[in-house]
Predict the 3D structure of the following.
Amino acid sequence: MTAGTLAVTGGRVWDGTGSAPLDGATVLIEDGRITALSAGIEPPAGIERIEAGGRFVMPGLIDSHVHVLLSGEDQSLPAFLGAGVTSVRDVGGRTDEMLRLREEVASGSRVGPRVFTHGPLLDGDPTIFPGGAGMDSILHTEALKTPEEGSAGCATSSSVASTASSSTRACDRTSSAR
């Protein structure tokens, strides 16, 4: 969503906290963040409104185990949003491709959920994915098999991404502690 203020009005809000759903609620969103939620809010005049009467309003879902490249990013990223998934964590894609997709989504040039990626696939020798079916080109061009490769992979991942995900930052702390 672009910067500005939006009011989602009249919906039944389920917030995921265990509280009962709130009927006839208004959700105010300013610059992409929820700033108010109540059944008694009257939105300011002149702001964009979405009438949600008869519909549920709920937080976006997070899918923490996806393979975007295996699913085909052109189809899967928009489909996640259609299913209410607003954040995904890719756990086995090529780092360079996943960082590119993450940037495209963040910049708005590609439609999709917020993308988190862990970096290179961690595997062993022999590999659990023995080539074939296109797996090498998608998953295994950078599979890591030793602790030394893991440390080097962490350094590579953090140098490629100027805004590293929290999982890459955790990887950096682990590798520097060796």
Observations:
- Residues 5-57 form a domain with the Urease, subunit C; domain 1 fold (CATH 2.30.40.10).
- Strands lie at 5-13, 22-30, 33-38, 48-51, 56-57, 61-66, 85-90, 114-117.
- The CA atoms of residues 26 and 41 lie 6 Å apart.
